[in-house]
Structure formats: structure tokens, C-alpha cells
Amino acid sequence: MPASSLLQLLDEPVAAAHGVRLLLWRDDLVNPDLPGNKARKLKYNLMAARHQGHHTLLTFGGAYSNHIAAVAAAGRLLGFRTIGLIRGDEPAVGENLNPTLAQAAADGMELHYLDRTAYHRRGEPAFIAEQLARFGPAYVLPEGGTNALALPGCAELVAEIRQQVDFDALAVAVGTGGTLAGLLTGLAGQHHAVGVAALKNGEFLRSEIDALTQATAGQAFDNYSLQTDYHFGGYAKYSAELLVFIQQFQERHGVLLDPIYTGKLLFGVLDLIGKGYFQRGSTVVAIHTGGQQAWAGWQERFGSKR
């Protein structure tokens, strides 16, 4: 898809009233088979896996994880065996998989389940060694796909957006912090970035983000803010207000946001504009990182988004 068609002007009254030009970068449209920031996080990891001679990807995630869905799709597209270690209980015999896991399985991912105690150990070298002894050699991807190799793929987004528009700030939803950290390395201290945390008590993400940029770019950056007031109760939590916002946003702009990340992002950005956070005359680009696959599981659990 031409890059010029990925940038959409958002005609929002609050932005006009505060003299802010608000644009949406549709990273969810770049690759329909592997959309959004998950593809960017995987790009250099998959190259490393090939270079190291791996034929298997092993990773971790929740039962509705965008990352699990993306790794499974990458395996199908690129010929990797994929193993997903899923947080939670294995479905009972005869019980259907939720839509995310059903698609992952259809894409060839082998699904195995970890109770919360075992899952809590997912980052421990000894635990990872146990899994490799169990499943055989594999390239291990962390939960959410965030590691040092995830950042360069996300950093490339900065140049892609710059080719289309001069901006003053980029805004992105934050889960593990990898995408925001990648944007910061791409910005290299120029312009401003805003991260909208999708989980409750997200202040700890600052140290995570700074550690990632330190490891990758050799420095921590101060040209960003982390907004922690738009989590709507925590990760995968929601309210009627958020769902109404997502519905009305789709009606206004023809864009479906997701309830985990991008709905909270746009709600937060518009609220910040209304509070005068961005200077008059600013151009702000919010990044749609995908995640629409979550809706099928969301509707299964909670009913219609409307």
C-alpha cells in the first residue's frame, strides 16, 4: 500500500479549537497478513532466527494476545514451526478455543498452557532452558515481542512518517514499551513522543523504556512523556465510555480502533489536546498499531462492542 494512503487527517472539533493538526498513521494497513507494530517488532528477530539457523519460534502470551496471533501468522508465512506457551488453563476436552487461539492453531502454532506460577517464570533463564529441553532448539521471543531487536523495526516507522509529513509529536499506545522505545531511537532526541499506557500502574514502564533505549541506542531519551491516566481500569479493562468512544470514532472516521490499545490511545490524545498539552500550531501523528483481531475474542467474552 502506498505510504501516502496510510496517513489520515482526523477532523476533530477539539483539535480545531486548539489549533492542533491531528493525523492518524494507519500502520494496521501496511501488511494485512501481519499488521501493525507486531510485524515491526518481529522483523529483525525473524532475520536473527534465520541467521542463527533456527526453524522454530517459541514465545509466550495470554489467550487473546496480539503477539501470539502475529507469531503464528509469521510462522505460516515464513515457514517457521511455532510454539505458543499460553497463560492459563488448557481448554477442557470438547471446549472450543477462543478466536485468537483458534486462528493461531489454524496458522500452525502448537499451543501449550502454563499456570500463573509457571508463567511468572517466563523470563528466567533456567525456565527457558527447561522449555528448550522440552520442545527442542528454538528462537525464543519474549512476551509482547519486546527485546533489543524489536526496536530497529519500530524505529523505521519514524522515517516513513517523516517522508509524508513534518510533525511535532508522535503518539502511540504502550503495553510493554517496545514500540515507544523504538520510536525514541528513531527520533534520536528530535521532536516529542507521547506514550499512552494501556495498563494500570504503568509508571514502571519508564524504566523499561529507558533501559531498552540505553541498550539499543546507548542512551535514555527525555523527549517523551508517559501518560498513565487512560487505562480504563487496567490491561484489557474497559468502560461504557471507552466503547462509546470507539463506536463514535468509527462513525466519524471509518476507522475501527481496538479496546485494548488504540481506543485508549485516541481517547487519551484527544483529551490531552483538550487540556492544551500540545502547542497551538502543532502537528500530532497518532499511530494505529493494529490489534483489531482482539474484537472477535472481546465479543465472545463481553458481547457486542456496541
Task: Describe what is shown at a glance.
The protein is of the alpha/beta class and 306 residues long. The chain has 2 domains: 3-35 and 148-302, Rossmann fold (3-Layer(aba) Sandwich), CATH 3.40.50.1100; 37-145, Rossmann fold (3-Layer(aba) Sandwich).
What share of the residues does DSSP label as strand, in percent?
15-25%
Tell me the overall shape: globular
The largest sheet, given as strand count, sense and whether it forms a barrel, is: 6 strands, mixed
Q: The CATH topology of the largest domain, please?
A: Rossmann fold
Which series of helices and strands comes N to C? EHEHEHEHEHHEHEHEHEHHEH
User: How many domains make up the 3D coordinates?
Assistant: 2
What structural class should be given to the helix and strand makeup?
alpha/beta
- Helical content band: 40-55%
Q: Could you tell me the radius of gyration in angstroms?
A: 19 Å
Major β-sheet strand ordering: 1-2-10-7-8-9
Distance between the termini: 30 Å
Query: Would you identify the CATH architecture of the largest domain?
Result: 3-Layer(aba) Sandwich
CATH class call of the largest domain: Alpha Beta
- Tally of separate helices: 12
- Integer average pLDDT: 92
Instruction: Name the poorly predicted regions.
Output: none
**DSSP strand tally:** 10
